[in-house]
Input
Amino acid sequence: MKLGVTVCLDEVADDESYTMMLIEEERDLLEREKRPGQHAK
Output
């Protein structure tokens, strides 16, 4: 059965890049929150 869905490799790469950026931002935010005496701005 074919559903007629086409995914371009550029779209996959863009999604992967965006996801990696989000993960990095979340990790940085957690690191800032863990530091004693410093508050995220």
Q: What stands out?
A: Residues 7-34 form one domain. The helical segments are 9-34. The chain has a mean pLDDT of 81. The first helix runs from residue 9 to 34.
